[in-house]
Write a structure and sequence with these properties.
about 400 residues, alpha+beta, Porin, five-stranded mixed sheet, 8 helices, about 25% helix, rod-shaped
């Protein structure tokens, strides 16, 4: 019984499956206007997209020329009757044609499929796209696949389709989030100690949390429908609400994924810091500068009998403290030097019409400590852009 079922299935597949793929089709020229493309080129483009669907055996342009010698001029064959006659001459099951016209600030792609045997319009589809002539190939692909009931890339269609409202994207898969940033950060490690330490001991003596304000500039260097790679520059100032001015410059490499707008970025941060070298005495809990500790140890040595003559010269050789005992820490009494941090950020961009709202959490740190923070920003695109036009 099982063998019979398998045999029946194979016979059904051979009959119906082969019948489906054995249907033939041809593509005539498409009427064009205002798109910088000839009817012949539009026909070739549609023919290529139809071949890519693998639904029909498609005649190429040479087969068509050799099969329609009896038709005087088929270059302007756009109507149903003419197309039916053309299909009969070519002996195909279906013939495709249509038009690609620029109308105002949009491009209208119309495709139709003629059933040659019944001499009737079998299928038709018309879509209005944004005026971006360099993307006509995608427009034809979407219109054709939708007419044939095949799966299309909805993200690509969304970004190409004509809309009366403002479009937030300027490239396939792209959202430009250049704009202001506001946030708050909490320090940890040695940075927490620096924030909370008394000013007399070289600290800032402020609340261990700061607000920050900055601006993100970003440039996309890779972009597809579902992925973007970005170069981001973010100047930032923190601590102004507590009377501090802490500037940083962040240079990040970012990645943005799909329609959901998830983001990940990493890179260095540059700024300045004051560093003091000294000895953290575990006995009294005081951090002495290097010179202060040297003076203390010398005074103790000099006070011991037999080390210094009353006239001031040494009776014994003095050995200063080893350099290995000294450490460096953030301290307002120290020297100003160049500072680098490593930044890791993760977030998501929320959308509301033309408004993008990027929300991120990040960590920035080095061996002296780090900060964990969050930021939010906004970006508004005020005018419609080409899908491949850059806007910075």
């Amino acid at each position: 019984m099982k063998t019979k079922v398998i045999l029946i299935n194979l016979i059904m597949f051979a009959l119906f499956g082969q019948n489906a793929v054995s249907q033939t089709a041809a593509v005539a020229n498409l009427s064009t206007n205002g798109v910088g493309m000839s009817p012949e080129l539009a026909g070739k483009l549609t023919r290529i997209e139809l071949i890519n669907t693998q639904k029909y055996i498609v005649l190429d342009e040479f087969d068509m020329e050799s099969g329609i010698e009896q038709i005087e001029d088929y270059s302007a064959c756009y109507g149903k009757n003419c197309l039916t006659a053309l299909g009969e001459a070519l002996k195909v099951d279906y013939i495709f044609s249509g038009s690609i016209h620029a109308l105002g600030n949009k491009i209208v792609v119309h495709l139709k499929m003629i059933d040659v045997k019944s001499k009737s319009v079998y299928k038709t589809n018309t879509l209005e796209f944004d005026d971006q002539t360099e993307e006509i190939s995608r427009m034809v692909e979407i219109t054709l696949k939708e007419m044939l009931g095949l799966e299309i890339n909805e993200e690509t269609k969304k970004r190409l389709i004509f809309q009366e409202e403002v479009i937030t994207s300027t490239n396939v898969g792209r959202v430009n989030n250049s704009g202001p940033r506001f946030g708050v950060a909490v320090p940890g490690g040695g940075l927490y100690d620096f924030f909370t330490r008394d000013e007399r001991n070289g600290g800032l003596n402020i609340i261990p949390a700061t607000t920050n304000i900055g601006y993100q500039f970003e440039v996309q260097y890779i972009g597809t429908e579902n992925f973007s790679a970005l170069f981001e520059v973010i100047p930032n100032v923190a601590g102004m609400e507590q009377g501090q001015f802490i500037p940083t410059l962040n240079i990040l490499n970012g990645f943005r994924f799909g329609q959901s707008g998830w983001e990940f970025a990493f890179g260095p941060s540059f700024g300045g810091r004051r560093i003091l070298e000294g000895y953290d005495n575990p006995v009294d809990g005081v951090f002495y500068t290097k010179q202060e500790w040297k003076d203390i140890k010398y005074t103790e040595w000099a006070a011991e009998p037999g080390n210094v003559h009353p006239d001031g010269y040494w009776l014994e050789n003095y050995t200063p403290p080893s350099s290995s005992i000294y450490t460096k820490r953030l301290d307002t009494r120290g020297d100003l030097e160049f500072n680098t941090n490593w930044v890791m950020a993760f977030g998501r961009t929320f959308k509301s019409g033309a408004l993008n709202i990027p929300v991120n959490v990040y960590y920035s740190g080095n061996k002296f400590g780090g900060v964990l923070g969050g930021s939010v920003g906004f970006n508004i695109v005020k005018q419609k852009k080409s899908i491949n036009q850059q806007s910075f």
